[in-house]
Write a structure and sequence with these properties.
single chain, alpha/beta, 14 strands
Length: 346
């Protein structure tokens, strides 16, 4: 063997050895990364106020995958054999589907001790998922254009708001509220009964079309129309977005009409077979704890579910308990409702 060839082999072996030596530390660094799925609209305040607290406390790095709940569900289905996400923040109706499809790992008091301090109504299906916060939904409005707020959902139908109303699509969870409001106004029944009378809801919703400026699936883009004054009212909006924009100086506010407001329960779950399961447990436990829930109440204007969490001074909560629908009924009928919605709003 020539001296030159021997030198090349020696260098090649040394490089391979260096790679092997470096790999364990690289792998250790990677195991501190926790992929968390959630709504795109929450990315700003989560990354600024919430994730850094958990990252520092547990020595991990959160990689946030922001999109819609239905999209995260599709990702969980696609990655079922080898999950990429360890924790997902989703709305209750989508959580219900994920649970039924066996995509969730139950939460337990041993892995998440703060579970014992959570309101009983916020723990679902023996811990399949838990609500870590409760945003409330009403009607958002441009406060420069609408003086005195919105006293009733009937204002959405008022002729003075022709071409000035924004609706969320029924593809979005908050789109359900416009349909439920319509059913309530048409039948005169309370929300608890009107939710089973959606045929009348579609009848009433058809009369709202002259007032509709646009139907959105992308909430932040629609919010821009409201803030710019192109729209006056925006149905089905929630505290964890509109009130954040108000606090930031945008000319918007959120009304709690006399008929009542709606619960936008935000769930947290552990993905079955999740990588970094111990970090996922620690992350979820922090979300169920009073420290993170107090931060969320202050920064995103939501109601906590931990009984020991404190509310910030001046926190304004709706006077009525937010209404939560029969999500099993919603999931059963949502496909048919969405088809009807698309035909109506085309």
């Amino acid at each position: 063997m020539s001296a030159e060839m021997s030198r090349r082999l020696l260098l090649r072996s040394a490089a391979a050895g260096a790679t092997l030596l470096a790999t364990p530390s690289l792998l250790r660094a990677q195991t501190r990364d926790l992929v968390v799925g959630g709504a795109a609209g929450m990315a700003g305040y989560m990354k600024e106020f919430v994730f850094p607290v958990i990252e520092k406390k547990h020595g991990l790095r959160v990689i946030f995958d922001g999109t819609r709940s239905l999209v995260n569900l599709e990702k969980m289905r696609a990655d079922k054999a080898a999950p990429r996400m360890s924790v997902v923040l989703m709305d209750d109706p989508i959580m219900q589907i994920a649970m039924e499809e066996g995509l969730l790992a139950p939460l337990t008091a041993s892995a998440q001790p703060n579970l014992g301090k959570i309101q009983p109504w916020a723990i679902h299906a023996d811990g399949a998922w838990v609500n870590y916060q409760l945003p409330w939904a009403g009607v958002a409005y441009n406060s420069s254009l609408v003086k005195g707020g919105v006293s009733s959902y009937a204002d959405l139908w008022d002729a003075k708001n022709k071409g000035r109303v924004i609706l969320p699509s029924l593809q979005n969870t908050e789109g359900l509220w416009a349909l439920l409001i319509a059913a309530h106004l048409e039948t005169g029944k309370p929300f608890a009964e009107a939710q089973y009378s959606m045929e009348q809801g579609f009848k009433k919703l058809a009369t709202l079309k002259p007032n509709v400026l646009t139907v959105y699936t992308n909430q932040p883009q629609a919010e821009n129309l409201l803030e710019s004054g192109e729209a006056s009212l925006m149905a089905g909006q929630f505290s964890s977005y509109t009130l954040i924009r108000k606090a930031g100086g945008a000319p918007v506010d959120l009304a709690a009409p006399k008929e009542g407001v709606f619960a936008m329960p935000s769930g947290i779950c552990k993905v079955k077979g999740a990588p970094n399961g111990d970090l996922a447990d620690a992350f979820i436990n922090e979300f169920l704890g009073p420290e993170i829930q107090a931060i969320l109440a202050e920064k995103s204007f939501v109601l906590p579910t931990n009984t020991t969490a404190t509310l910030p001074a001046g926190f304004t909560a709706p006077s009525a308990t937010p209404f939560a629908p029969d999500w099993a009924n919603v999931n059963k009928n949502r496909g048919a409702w969405l088809e009807r919605w698309n035909q109506l709003m085309a």
